[in-house]
Amino acid sequence: MSSNVPETQTDLDRIKSKRRGLMIVLSSPSGAGKTTLTRKLLAENADMTMSVSATTRAPRPGEKDGHDYYFVSKDKFVEMIDADEFLEHAKVFDHYYGTPRGPVEDALTEGRDIVFDIDWQGAQQLTQAAADDLVRIFILPPNMRELEQRLKSRAQDSDDVISKRMAKSEAEISHWIEYDYVIVNERIETALNELRAIVSAEQLKRRRQLWLGPFVKSLVSGG
Q1: Overall CATH class of domain 9-51+113-216
Q2: 3-class SS at 155?
Q3: CA-CA distance, 18 to 16, in Å (whole number)?
Q4: How much is the pLDDT for 223?
Q5: Residue 181 is inside which H or E element, if any?
Q6: Pairing between β-strand 23-27 and β-strand 69-71 as defined by DSSP bridges
Q7: Cα 51 off chain centre by
């Protein structure tokens, strides 16, 4: 019997595990709950990893180089752009951010999903670079008052920065239509359930199931 046709349920599970990884992009205006949803999704999926971006901004309290971000100088960032080491990069609030290409490509080949916390500019660039591997999800707040309150409750930014983020949020929200899915985060558990459903469906898409071709060939040949 062909090795592509399972004899037991365990064999079938082993064969079905051979899939290409998925790039999960989450975007939102600041304060919409994207970071909380991302952390909960990662906590539930041991084989899912967070894309670590490079940035020229200074670390915030508690952030670690290589874990939260790769903190680099502006000169180093420009060198990485020139060497085509980014899948995407952008300037946000006077600082540069970018996704290193190598770790992402390795994860996809190994069948691991990787999550991206990036803005609409980064999502556009990733679409150009790797559309077939990508699912884009936009997170909206239930209303703008709630968005501002969430920003204030984080106690991470000054009033001036919060004002800038609120002023920019309308422009960010205008890009919702460029995404494959939109989640309105009024209640975190409801939003998380919707996110789980999206990820599960995208993981099952035919083009990501690398085992299906050989399996069907053996199945119909009577192996």
Answers
A1: alpha beta
A2: coil
A3: 5
A4: 57
A5: strand 181-184
A6: unpaired
A7: 7
Q: Give the closest residue to 26 by CA, choosing from 146, 85, 113.
A: 113
Give the pairing of strands 23-27 and 134-140. Answer: parallel
Residues in the chain with pLDDT < 70? 1-10, 17, 152, 154-157, 159, 167, 223
**Six token digits for residue 194:** 């919707």
For the packed helices 159-173 and 144-154, what is the interaxial angle rounded to 10 degrees? 140
> Contact 97/117 with Cβ under 8 angstroms?
no
- What DSSP assignment string belongs to 59-112? PPTT--BTTTEEE--HHHHHHHHHTT-EEEEEEETTEEEEEEHHHHHHHHHTT-
State residue 157's pLDDT score. Answer: 66
Is residue 147 helix, strand or coil? helix
Model-level pTM greater than 0.90?
A: no
Query: Domain boundaries in the chain?
Result: 9-51+113-216
